[in-house]
Structure formats: structure tokens, C-alpha cells
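Q: Could you fold this chain for me?
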Amino acid sequence: MDHSVLFGLVGMFGLGFAHAFGPDHLAAITTLVRPQMPVGRMAAISLRFALGHSLILFVCSVGALAFSFLPSEGFIRIAETLGGLALMFLGGAVLHDTFRDPQAPHRHAAGLWGSLFAASGTRSLILALSAATVAHSTPVALLFSAAFGAGIVCGMLLFGLALGASQHAFLRTPRAQRAAALATAAVSLLLGGYWAFAEWL
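A: Sure. Below is the predicted structure, expressed as C-alpha cells.
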């Protein structure tokens, strides 16, 4: 394999890994888990979120490279607004469940939520892949996209495992769990509100 392609794959994996730790992604995943869940279940939720997120990015990459399509600034702005509103909804759901019944089963469809949060990140990825196409070829660009997605999956899975371990270590009492849920809700509402409306101000 060409060294430049190998370096590109490693670089795209690293970018995907870093992308996984975006504050909106971490906040969204945190709203989908509960302290009383087994660590393995938290990791599974993070994994489904990551797979949904990565799949949408890869599909958008394929479509963009096949049809020379690049999302407009207006599309990205709307996508970011929807992502912010989605994060506010998740934060509100945590707040509602905390006051209603802290032990109630948490509603989630992690893969679908991960897909929703992917739209705003498509433009920068497609621009990078377009440059890769010019330097190499479309198949190589798609390989780069897959490496980016693999980085996302690894990063979010690692976060899910760390989140589960830390919650089980530090949130052992109902009072601590309630405080953590309220903090999660507050951060999600504030971050989602900023993300949704900052671009329009």
C-alpha cells in the first residue's frame, strides 16, 4: 500500500476518533444511559449511537462523491439547529424522567439519535474526501471515509465504557444519581440551545 494512503488512513481514523468526543455527541450519549445500567449496556448504547452516526456520514460521503454534491451552508445551519433541538429534547426527557420516576426504563433509540447528530458534520468530511479523490481516487476516498467512521466507533465505544465505569464507581446512591441526572439535563439543554440558535444570532 502507498505510504501516503496509509498515512491518510491513520490520519482519518484519528480525526474520526477526535470527532467522537465532540461535546454534543458526549452529551447526547450521556442522556441515553442511566447509572443503574450495567456497563456493558452503556457501551452497547454508545456503540449503536456511533454506528448510526458513522453510517449516515459514510452514505453522505458516497452520495457526495458519486454526484459531486456538497451540502450548502444553509443546509448545515438547519442541520445544526435540528441537532441542537434534538439535544434539548433529550435533556428535557432526562429532566422529566428524573422527577417522574428515576428508576423508569429510559426510552432511547441510540442508532437513530446518532444518525440525527451526523448531518451537521457531513460538509467538512466531504471536503476532506474530495481532496483525497483529487490526490488519489474515489475508492481511496471511500476507504478514508470508512477509517473516519471506524475512529468514531472506537472513540464513542471507549467513552461508553468509561462513562459506565465512572458512574458505577461514583454514583452509588439515589441522591448522587439524581444530582448527576439533573446536571446532565442542564448541560444538554444549555448546550443544545446554544448549538441550535447561535448560528441565527
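A (continued): Residues 138-170 form the longest helix (33 residues).
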